[in-house]
Specification:
This protein is globular. It is built from 6 helices and 4 strands, in the order βαβααααββα. Strands 2-1-3-4 form a 4-stranded mixed β-sheet, covered by helices on one side. By secondary structure, the protein is an alpha+beta fold. Helix content is 43%, strand content 16%.
Amino acid sequence: MTTVYGIKNCDSVKKALKFFKEHDIDYTFVDFKTDPVGCDIIDRWLNCSSMQQLFNSRSTTYRQLKLKELNLDDAGKREWLCKENLLIKRPVVEKDNHVIIGFNQTQYEGEFLS
């Protein structure tokens, strides 16, 4: 089963969901705003990727919280991801213990259509 995590109004999430619908791929959508994920899920994603991939330092939330001024290390970033899911790059797609972060048409085609 494929699970897509993100928020409904995010352009990258919209592209991912459109891709799955166009290719008749079943998925479950988890909205960070209504169903936040905890540290256990974030740790699982970090085991399959990296902090650089998962932590969105270009987000509005990052700027509003003035996190650049804190000069966070990876442990600090993890803490913020756990309490503020909107700092997670979107979408996060889980499929068979594999994690894909962000939307890339070519990557999705290789992962889901081959």
